[in-house]
Amino acid sequence: MINVAKLYEFKPSFGFFAQQLMYPEKLDFHPAFLEASFNPGHPAYTHANMYWSLMQEFSMEEIQEMYTETFDFQKNCALYMTYFKFEDAKERGQMLVKLKVLYEMYGLEMPDGELPDYLPLMCEFLYAAEWVQDAKTTENFRMPIAILEDGTYHLLKALEKMESPYFHLVKGLRETLKACVEQEAAAL
């Protein structure tokens, strides 16, 4: 079950994850952005800071090159979260439609030419949409959270194998999601 209050508490970090998972720009690496997104009690604090520290060792040109090599040229590092499970199967199309409808329900307009399972867009949705007051958020968010958990698992394994700094970013995202999902008590 999703803890909506916790998910809402971590909204700033979802904005950070969204920004850092898009094509890098110089403004994305302003230290205030990291500080505003995580406090020492945040479940992703250690991983976000490790990612940030590792990225400071590279020039902007090197970061952009690394991003492109990682996410554009490595099939197993796709930022499309349903791709790992469904590739181009019919079920993937159905999931994409459901995600698009969900975004629209909460007032998020889809960018032209972007698929709704694009990881930065999914994080942006959690950050930007106003969903905390909706009584159906817990139910409505089961699918996108499951997609994020499944897709980031595969992505994390690939990034770990590559020893990429993005491993820590995705690990931090997964730790944040994990902190927002409560295990339902087993029936006695």
- The first-to-last residue Cα distance is 18 Å
Stretches where pLDDT is under 50 for at least 5 consecutive residues are: none
Total beta strand runs: 0
Helicity level = 55-70%
Described by strand count, sense and barrel closure, the largest sheet is: none
- Put simply, the count of helices is 11
The structural class is mainly alpha
Mean pLDDT: 92
Based on CA inertia axes, which overall geometry fits?
Answer: globular
What does this structure look like?
The protein is mostly helical and 188 residues long. The chain has helices spanning 4-9, 11-20, 31-37, 45-55, 60-72, 83-86, 90-105, 119-128, 137-140, 142-162, 166-180. The model has no long low-confidence stretch (mean pLDDT 92).
What distinguishing features does this structure have?
mainly alpha, 11 helices, 188 residues
Summary of the model, kept short:
The chain has 188 residues and is an all-alpha fold. It is 62% helix and 0% strand. The protein has eleven helices and no strands.
Strands, helices and their partners?
Layout: H1 4-9, H2 11-20, H3 31-37, H4 45-55, H5 60-72, H6 83-86, H7 90-105, H8 119-128, H9 137-140, H10 142-162, H11 166-180
